[in-house]
Design a protein that fits this description.
By secondary structure, this protein is α/β, with parallel strands linked by helices. It folds into two domains: 182 residues, 3-Layer(aba) Sandwich (Rossmann fold); 124 residues, Nitrogenase molybdenum iron protein domain (Rossmann fold, 3-Layer(aba) Sandwich), CATH 3.40.50.1980. The chain is 45% helix and 13% strand. It contains ten helices and eight strands. Strand 1, helix 2 and strand 2 form a beta-alpha-beta unit. The longest helix is centred in the middle third of the chain and has 26 residues. It is globular, with a radius of gyration of 20 Å. About 4% of the residues have low confidence. Bound molecules: zinc ion.
């Protein structure tokens, strides 16, 4: 009942705002270009690269924004409504936006769920019972290639006239992603196996761990909407002391308090663990950091990890 009310209110807000033409948030729709709205920064980046000159992209979530907790604003709903296509990850990554996507489908809006491009058999199970699968597919470059290919298919369907250009953009990008994948693998091998242990604020890095040979532990579950328990914190502190882990990491889109609490719990046992730096998890870096593309962000991540654990 309550859900219905919210969606009715959203539709009403949408109607009212489109009638009065309140549209300050949207970029001006450029003539002859397709207007695509994406959720995460990873998707905005990929859509700009593949769409090239023929698309205008608006990303709803900025750098440092947590997609698990993000709620669509009225302005977001309008932007999606006006878009020629809406791109999202799926697998409940955008956990608070499910209803918005359902409404878009009801309105026959073209949507692309990029996780559809990833074979279900390679998806990791989620320990979080509210999610069937772990949604952090961009952490394994080979899976992200599948997601990006799905995105390219959607753009080609939207604008068949320029299919060939999109295909060329995709192929060029897939080659760059292969180079990134090789770079991450090579850097990971600079660490002995027992040193490849990654401890972060939330369980975002399981695909990364599987692809690049790291044991991964997060303080919070797969989604940041679950709370970390004090018992989990104590167990993790014991693990760090026993295995003499040199560094733990904060994440750009998750508050740092849990990692600081973990550091203190380790130090209470007389062992010194350093904070090895900030990793990008559920968002790319911003223009200021210079890590504002998927390739730059994940190059920075592996450099931070390997340099701190060495
Ligand atoms: Zn996450």
């Amino acid at each position: 009942m309550k859900k219905k009310n919210i969606s009715t209110i959203l539709v009403m807000i949408l109607l009212i705002l489109s009638l009065v033409g309140c549209d300050s948030r949207n970029k001006v729709k450029e003539e002859g270009k397709f207007y695509i709205v994406t959720t995460t920064t990873m998707l905005a980046d990929a859509t700009r690269i593949i769409g090239g000159d023929y698309v205008v992209v608006t990303g709803l979530m900025g750098p440092g924004i947590d997609p698990h907790l993000y709620k669509a604003s009225a302005g977001d709903v309008i932007a999606m409504q006006k878009a020629d296509m809406v791109v999202f990850t799926g697998l409940h990554l955008e956990g608070k936006m499910g209803e918005v996507f359902e409404n878009l489908n009801k309105l026959n809006k073209k949507t692309i769920k990029v996780s559809n491009g990833v074979d279900e058999s390679v998806l990791l199970q989620s320990e979080d019972k509210s999610l069937a699968h772990d949604p952090h597919i961009w952490f394994d470059v080979s899976l992200w290639k599948d997601a990006v290919s799905e995105l390219a298919n959607g753009i080609k369907e939207l604008d068949p006239e320029h299919s060939e250009e999109y295909e060329n953009n995709l192929n060029k990008y897939l080659t760059e992603l292969d180079e990134l994948d090789a770079y991450i693998k090579n850097r990971a091998l600079e660490l002995d196996e027992e040193k490849r242990v990654l401890i972060t604020a939330h369980d975002a890095f399981n695909y990364f761990g599987q692809a690049y040979g790291f044991q991964v532990k997060g303080i919070q579950g797969i989604s940041t909407s679950s709370e970390a328990g004090t018992r989990d914190l104590r167990n993790l502190a014991n693990f760090i002391v026993e295995n003499e882990i040199k560094a733990i990491f904060i994440e750009s889109s998750v508050p740092t308090k849990n990692i600081e609490a973990l550091k203190e719990a380790v130090e209470a046992q007389g062992f010194d663990v350093k904070i090895g730096g900030e990793l990008y998890s559920d968002s790319l870096g911003d223009g200021k950091s210079g890590d504002d593309t998927y390739i730059k962000t994940f190059t920075k991540n592996i450099d931070t990890i390997v340099d701190a654990l060495k």
